[in-house]
Amino acid sequence: MYQKRTVSQYVRRLIQLDPCLDSALRRGFANASAVARILRPQVEALIGASVTEGSVLAALKRMRRPELSGGPELPVARVLSASRLDLKTGLGKMVLRRTPQVADALGELAARHRRMFLQVLQGISSYTVVHESRLRDEILRSVPSGSVLAESSGLAALTVVSPPEISETPGVVSALLQRLASRGVNVEEVVSCHVDTIIIVRSEEGGRAFDSLQELISECRSLARGQG
Fold first, then answer.
1. Where does 143-183 have alpha helices with state H?
2. Same structural domain, 63 and 95
């Protein structure tokens, strides 16, 4: 009994880590027996013991009832159907030491450049600043010497502006990231601020990322219209 619970636990985790497989199972596109054959060696490696293909298949069938039923997808579609998408290119990123001096400098920069793209993510020991490239030199002048831990350029921001219902609808951000993952787009940063979801990618992937998310939003609009 313990082993069966362990198999189910690891099957669930493996499915959750594979957005494409998760989506295929939700929509009934994937053959459960074939998926069980694929997952069995991975489950055995995680458990450290032999498991039968039948036990993995049983775990998949149990998941299809609550976890993979697809029930939450219509609320997600309704939120995304009412969302709009914008693309901003010409961005850079800095990782700065988290000190009071850096915090003060970033606060002053944000106040001076309210109409420019300047997003600050606060971590335990650092700040990640995604900024318009023309602000780079000013940021470097504003923070103490030695504050920069890492830096990159050539980034783009996809901003999804959604209705207020996004704050009470689980799975919206997950749907956006799953679509990008299924198209092979690497996400550098994600920022969520009230109704705005900001996804940072490399500039060369910006067009493909935009088309992928716009396609998702269009699909959600069609689904929402079909539900009346």
1. 172-182
2. no
The neighbouring-strand residues paired with 160 are 85, 197
**Cα(206)–Cα(146) distance, rounded to whole angstroms?**
31
Which residue reads 């039968």 in tokens? 52
Question: Helix and strand tally (H, E) in the chain?
Answer: 9, 6
Q: Tokens 């609808």: give the residue.
A: 169
CA distance 2 to 65: 21
Looking at the structure, tell me whether residues 139 and 217 fall in a common domain. yes
Reported as type and span, the H/E element at residue 44 is helix 32-47
176-216, pLDDT tens digit by residue?
998 898 889 999 999 988 899 999 999 999 999 999 999 99
Amino acid at 86: D
Residue with tokens 């939450």: 72
- Domain range holding 45? 2-68
Q: What is the domain count for the chain?
A: 2
Cα distance between residue 25 and residue 108, in whole Å: 49
- From residue 152, give the alpha-carbon distance in Å to each of 119, 141, 155, 166: 15, 17, 8, 31
Of 120, 142, 141, which is closest to residue 129 (Cα–Cα)?
A: 120
Specify the DSSP class assigned to residue 163. Answer: -
Residues 209 and 100 occupy one common structural domain: yes
* 22-31 per-position pLDDT tens digit: 777 777 778 8
Q: Taking the complete model, does pTM exceed 0.85, yes or no? A: no
